[in-house]
Amino acid sequence: MGKTNFFFTSESVTEGHPDKVSDQISDAVVDAVLEQDPLGRVACETLVTTGLAFVSGEITTKCYVHIPSIVRKVIHDIGYTRAKYGFDSETCAVITSIDEQSPDIDIGVSERGGHEQGAGDQGLMFGYATGETEELMPLPILLAHKICERLAEVRKGDVLSYLRPDGKSQVTVEYVNGNPLRVDTVVVAAQHSPEAELDEIREDMIEKVIKPVIPAHLLDEKRVTYHVNPTGRFVMGGPKADTGLTGRKLIVDTYGGVGSHGGGAFSGKDPSKVDRSASYMARHIAKNLVASSACDKCEVQLAYAIGIPEPVSVMVDDFGTGRVDLEKMRQSVREIFPLKPRQIIEYLDLRRPIFRKTAAYGHFGRNEPEFTWEKTNQVSDIKTALGL
Q1: Is 376 in a helix, a strand, or coil?
Q2: Sheet holding 225-228, edge to edge
Q3: pTM more than 0.85
């Protein structure tokens, strides 16, 4: 971004949003396979609508997983437990249509004889990091996620008993000289029971959801604008109101619109799919470069060809914030970080059932023990390589 004074907006959605229900079901299937068969191959897509969850895709594994029970557990855990919601874990229909992975893909991806594991598909993946927050994430998406997490917390903790699972948030931040100054606008859409009053909902959202998670120094009460359920009511929600699909919240999953996106979704894919594993590695690289003070902002692109182990290109962009030569930075990335698909999987320890947790509230910027791509364990090596 060349501009220094601007407003930037990012959104997030709750775990009960239809698209996120689909993402969580797809990743729960991935986890169920990897738990029994770490080498299993999964490409799982889910559609949810009124009273129906439809799971399809390609799965190649030595184990058996009972998909309907996985689907119902995810829906129950999210909170769709009553038929009057138009979607509930006990009465919804579950339909599956699963095939095996194409043997043409398997030829290029599996290791056999002298063939090294290649990328599961062609594609380009991006990772991003910025020093504007402790998590090295853009502030707008970080705050939007925190609001949605808080919505789920007060709902499940029965603090606000009228809340239902669906919801969205949106945060606009004012930047001055390229740095976040304050929160300008907060939008919250919270699904609720029919008897809840708008005035009550508005006060609760501001006092019990927004203010507990947005630092006070970012909220100038004389200038901030709150939009809570702007249409006045949000009773019908979830899959009854809006069909959900896996992979339809790419920007929510990543950086809230900051930086670039290669177009590939994450959820429902085992780590042999570089859409997922290389995106995690690109974030890991960018985060370590920023954490090492090589630059204040960083975007990394990795690109692959199906069946080929080595990336076809590696790009590092410091947006003019670098403290070392950009070409030297790029060379150090190739020297320090493993970039072949199998190397990435082993380095980040991705053949584990860790993915359902990623499927709501973002894949990045979270201090979770399973999120190995968030570690800054290569800072000392980067500093040594770059003379920092």
Answers
A1: coil
A2: 6-13, 163-176, 179-192, 225-228
A3: yes
